[in-house]
């Protein structure tokens, strides 16, 4: 059985978070079960982009503080590292409040810049991942619970995509991002290359709607933890009311018979699951109804069955972030506004995810509009 620990934490007040994290880990044997004295422990938060903590885009700094203190309490050497979707890791860490916590606690900040090539064992033959991520003695995964326009949900497994450094993220979106199932398989293979020793989920305030960068903060009041990232994700999705058929990462895990992918093999501990009353998260905009279509139809009807990004000129400041973050280089600035090449666009929505001004909307294709109307009627 895979244990997933749950604890109620109503706010980010430092003492409440500290006690909540201690109780959360106590149900799993305490931090001393995962970290030994002298071990270098990489804590990997979500550092998606340079947003303040209240935006719920990144892991909250008080969660990071509590975990660093727990690692230090048992004699571990705390390192903190990630590679953001856009901008420098230091800038994102500073804006999110995490850099101040790192400096106050005496932890070491290790931005992911240097890479190491590792061999894959599945669909993908080779990956370049951050060297600190691969070489730390222990790995603690510290994701934020958020909806995700491409993967429906981002939590433990998806957070590990941060081990892919800088522009390589765009390369992977270009290689696998046009197919959600293929992209989910890639995420699972990254996870298998270095499975975390411990996963702790910040769901005190989660994100719903058009996450992971443009959604709305929503109070959930929970922390989750467990050794198995897939199992923790499955319980998080259950609490968030996300249908299993939309969990691409979980589906990929089940297809590969990965441990943690079966609900009957998961035991929840700590705060009783049956006593939790969590409102289902509002899911992202439905942007794709191609599931199950043969390849030749997907190619021909792609524009009709999917959504495409469009600019809201009133909000767009032509900052160029979307141009830099677009894997297939499908965006240009012409005539004083953004222009999209929809033949090249792979519908990964990295542009929407990273736009600092929430200036990008989605326009549904004709058949997608019809499918939504039919779904609503039934």
TrEMBL record:
Keywords attached to this entry: 4Fe-4S, Iron, Iron-sulfur, Metal-binding
PROSITE patterns linked: 4FE4S_FER_1, 4FE4S_FER_2
Record has Iron-sulfur as a keyword: yes
Gene3D superfamilies given in the database record: 3.30.70.20
GO molecular function, one term: metal ion binding
InterPro entries: 4Fe4S_Fe-S-bd, 4Fe4S_Fe_S_CS, DUF362, PSI_iron-sulfur_center
Annotated ranges, domain 4Fe-4S ferredoxin-type: 307-336, 337-365
Record carries keyword 4Fe-4S: yes
Domain of life, source organism: Bacteria
Name recorded for this polypeptide: (4Fe-4S)-binding protein
């Amino acid at each position: 059985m895979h244990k997933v620990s749950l604890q109620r934490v109503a706010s980010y007040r430092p003492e409440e978070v500290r006690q909540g994290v201690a109780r959360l880990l106590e149900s799993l044997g305490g931090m001393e079960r995962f970290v030994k004295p002298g071990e270098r422990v990489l804590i990997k938060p979500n550092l998606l982009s340079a947003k303040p903590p209240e935006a719920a885009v990144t892991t909250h700094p008080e969660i990071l503080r509590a975990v660093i203190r727990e690692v230090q309490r048992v004699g571990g050497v705390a390192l903190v590292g990630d590679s953001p979707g856009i901008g420098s890791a230091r800038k994102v860490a500073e804006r999110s409040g995490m850099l101040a916590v790192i400096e106050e606690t005496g932890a070491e900040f290790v931005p992911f810049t240097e890479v190491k090539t590792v061999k894959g064992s599945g669909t993908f033959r080779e990956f370049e991942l951050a060297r600190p991520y691969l070489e730390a003695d222990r790995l603690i995964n510290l994701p934020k619970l958020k909806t995700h326009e491409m993967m429906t949900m981002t939590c433990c497994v998806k957070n590990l995509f941060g081990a892919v450094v800088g522009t390589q993220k765009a390369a992977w979106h270009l290689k696998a991002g046009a197919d959600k199932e293929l992209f989910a398989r890639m995420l699972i293979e990254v996870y298998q290359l270095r499975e975390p020793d411990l996963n702790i989920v910040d769901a005190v305030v989660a994100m719903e709607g058009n996450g992971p960068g443009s959604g709305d903060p929503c109070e959930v009041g929970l922390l989750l933890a467990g050794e198995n990232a897939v199992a923790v994700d499955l319980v998080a999705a259950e609490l968030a009311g996300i249908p299993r058929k939309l969990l691409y990462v979980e589906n990929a895990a089940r297809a590969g018979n990965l441990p943690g992918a079966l609900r009957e093999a998961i035991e929840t501990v700590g705060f009783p699951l049956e006593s939790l009353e969590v409102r289902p998260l509002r899911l992202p905009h439905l942007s794709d109804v191609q599931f199950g279509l043969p390849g030749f139809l997907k190619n021909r009807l792609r524009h009709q069955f999917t959504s495409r990004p469009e600019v809201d000129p009133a909000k767009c400041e032509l900052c160029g972030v979307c141009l830099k973050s677009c894997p297939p280089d499908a965006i240009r600035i012409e005539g004083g506004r953004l222009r999209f090449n929809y033949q090249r666009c792979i519908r990964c929505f990295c542009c929407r995810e990273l736009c600092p001004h929430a200036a990008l909307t989605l326009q549904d294709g004709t058949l997608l509009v019809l499918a939504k109307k039919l779904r609503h009627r039934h």
